[in-house]
Amino acid sequence: MTTSSHTKMFKQLKNKPVKLQKFIKHNSPKPRKCGKNTKKCVRCGNPRGHIGKYKLNLCRRCFREIAKSIGWKKYS
Fold it and tell me: Whole-structure pTM over 0.70, yes or no?
């Protein structure tokens, strides 16, 4: 389904609340239990470049911004 057809569907179902609830129930995305998107940066919510080591749970960009303030040093 394309985005435009989703908006058309919601416009049609706006006046039919029971059918709208059924549509949302069967077409909403399922919660993920495994895979890339389960681990996200706690600061910005980005799933890419995730650093989970030492329970940091930050993306690499956020880590670079706050590394000095949390006590990390750059050697070299």
Answer: no
Q: Mind listing the pLDDT tens digit for each residue in 1-31?
A: 555 666 777 788 888 899 989 988 888 878 8
Domain residue limits, the chain: 1-28, 42-76
In the block, which residue shows the tokens 């006046």? 15
Are the C-beta atoms of 6 and 20 separated by less than 8 Å?
Answer: no
Q: Phi first, then psi: what are they for 59, rounded to 5°?
A: -80, 165
Q: What is the pLDDT of residues 54-74, one digit of tens each?
A: 999 999 999 999 999 999 998
Place of tokens 């006590």: 71
42-76: in CATH 3.40.50.300: no
* Interatomic CA distance for residues 13 and 23, integer angstroms: 9
Structure tokens at 8: 């058309």
